[in-house]
Sequence to fold (749 residues):
Amino acid sequence: MFDNIKIVFHQGKQFIPNVQTAVVPGIFRGRPIISLEKVNEDELMAICPTEAITGNPVAIHLGKCTFCGECARCYPEKITFTKDYKLASNDPERLIIREGENKAVEVNPETVRKEIHRVLGRSLKLRQISAGGDNSCEMELNATNNVQFDMSRFGIDFVASPRHADGIVITGPISKNMAEAVQICYDATPDPKIIVLVGTDAISGGMFAGSPAIDRSFLDKYPIDLYIPGNPAHPLTIVNGLLDLTRKLK
Amino acid sequence: MNYISIKNNQTILLTDIPESNYESFYDMNLELVEGHMERHCVNYFGYKTGNNVKLICCIADDLTHEILISTCLVHKAHALESFSAKLLCFEKFEREIHENFGIDFTDHPWLKPVRYAFNRDDRSQTMDNYPFYSIDSEELHEVGVGPIHAGIIEPGHFRFICNGEQILHLEIQLGYQHRGIEQLFLEKKKLLQRATLAEDIAGDTVVGHSTCFAHAWESLCGFEASSDIQFARTLALELERMAVHLSDLSGACTDIAYQLGNSVFGRLRTPIINFLQEWAGNRLAKGLIRPGRNQFPFTPVLAERLKQVLDIFEPDFNEMVEKLFKLPSALSRFERTGVVSNADALSIGAVGMAARMTNLNRDIRASHPYGLYPELNHSPILKRHGDVYSRIQIRKEEVLQSMKYIRRLLEEVPAQPTKEERLNSPAPNSFCLSLVEGWRGEICHCALTGEEGELMLYKIKDPSFHNWLALALSVRNNEISDFPICNKSFNLSYSGHDL
Fold:
C-alpha cells in the first residue's frame, strides 16, 4: 500500500496539460515550410522516395511524405521541417504545402459533415483497423491513451467492437488480404460513422502505393472525414486532429 | 563438404556457393543441424531461374561464428523429400517454398499456406479457405479470434480448439499484413526508397531491420562503416530494445489487470523514444539509419542529454520492477503460464528471447557479432523455465543490460570523420547475408545481385517467422483466459512475418 503510494508520488506530474500548445522535444519533423529560393526542381523531386514533392510551384503532399527529411538535408535553404505537429485535415487539398506558404494545417469547418459536431462532439468512440500497417502508427495510437497524452480526458476512446464505435481508424495501405475485413468492420459500425486515415501508408499507400498486394478500393466508396499524416503520426498530431474535427465550430 | 563458410555480412560470388543435387544437399544440411544445438537454419529460400528453382540454405554455426551456405537446383515437377519430417525447424521455410513455387514435399507434416503472397503459385488458395486443423468431437468447441483484435494491434487469425476453458490446440493464420515488400525492394531502384522500405518491414523494429539492410547493402558495395556509424547503430539498437521491452512490460501488466505497472512502464518508455526524437526527429527512429552514412551524428551534447535521461529513468524503473516482481498476485499469473520446453524450442528452431527463455543460447550479438558488440563482449541473458515469467524476467534484465551497454558506449563517443566515404554500386553476381539481433531476436536479410549489380532477390526473415509456432505451443493446456498474457509476453510481429 505505502509502496504503491510512493511509486505514484515518484511519477510526478506526467500528463501534458495543454495538448494544443505543448512543445515537442528535439528536432521533430513536422509541417514543412518551402521557401521561394530557386533550386533545380527536377533534382529536388528526384530525391523524394514517394513522389510527395511536385514542381512548379514546389509543393509537398503531407499525405505522401514519409517525413524522412532527405529533401531538407539536400536543400536546407529551400525546405525546412518545423516542429509544428498539427498536420491533420479533412480536406486533402489542405495537406499540400506550397512554396512561400506558412500557414497552419487545419480542418475546414465548412466541409465537416454536420452530424459530426452534433452527435460526436462530446464523445467519440473509435474502432481501429490495422490493414497492412507496420505497427508504428498502431503504437502511436496506443500512446494517445497513455498517462501523458491521455486522450480519453476529451471523451475520445478506442473500443473493442465496431458495434460500440462511432467510426473507424485505418492504418496501413490496406493489403488485399485485409480488404474484406475492413469492409465487414465498417459495415458493422452504426451510423453516423466517420472514417479516419492515420499515417502516410493509409492516406496514400506511402511506399506501398502501386504494390500488387494492396487493394485500396474501399477508400473510393466512402467519404473520408479526417487525414492524419505522419510516419508514424505523432500522438499530438492524432489528438489535435480528432479534436479539430469534432470540436471546432463554424 | 559441399558448402561455403562465410562470416556475418560477408559478400561472396554466387558462383562460389557450391551446388549439389537435392539428395546430397538434403543429406548434408540434415547432418549439419541434426543433433547440433549450436547450429540452426537462419534462412532457406528459393528463387526462379528459368523453369527451375534454385534453393539456398543458410545454416549458422554459433561456435565457429560462421554461416554455411549451400545450394541446389530443383524443378517444380519433382516432389522432394522434406527436411521438416526429420527437423521441424525447417517447417515454415518449406511451406514458403511450396507456396511461392508450387514445389511439393512428399512427407511434410502440413503444407499449409504461409502468408498468401500476391505472387503465390496456387491462386485458388485464399484467405477464406485456410485448412484449419479440427477435431471432430461433441465435447470440444472452437473459438475464432481475429483478424481484427480487441486492442490496437495488427491483424491475424487465431483458432483455438478448447475443452471447456482449457486450450487443447491453437492454430494461427497469418498473411493479412502482406504488402509485397520483397518484390518492392526490387522494383524501387533508389537507395532511399529501399532504406525506407526496410524501416517499414516492422514499425516496432525500425532500427533492427534498417540496420540489417544497411549492413547487407554496405557489404555488397564493399563499404567499411566508420566507427561513428557503428556507434550510432549499436546505440540505436539498444535504445530500441529498451523502449519495446518497456512497452511489453506495460502490456503484460495490462493483461493481468495491474493498472499501476501498466501506467508506470508505459510512461517510462516515453523518455527513451523521445530521446530518439531529439536525436533523429522521429520517436521510432525512422530516418535514422541509412546505408553508407551517419545521417544524424551523435554529438557530445546528445551524450550528456542521454546520460541525464538514464539517470532519471533508472530509479523509477527499479522501483517499479521491484514492486512487480514481489507482487504475489502478479507472479501467480506469470509463473508456469504458457510454458515452452527447451526441447520444443530447439525442435521448432526458436530464436531470440523465445529461445533464451528456455536456456537455449541464441543471440547474434554474441554468436555473430557486428557493429560495436565485439567490444561490448555481450553475454546473453538466459532463463530456464520457458514460461511467461521467464519472458518478463528477460525483458527486465535486458533493459538493465542495455542501459549498462549504453552507458559504456557513452564513455567514448567517436568523432565524425572529416571526409565522408563514398558508397559504390553493389558488386555483380553476388550473394550477401546479414544477421542482426533485433529486440525480438535474429533478423536475417539475404541479397542477390545480377549481371549488372542490380538487385535480383531480397529475402527478409523476421524472428517472428520462427517464433509464432512457439506461441501456439505455449498455450496448450492453459486456460483460454491466459492467452492474452501469453501472446503479449512473446509480442511477435505480424507485418515482419507477412512482409
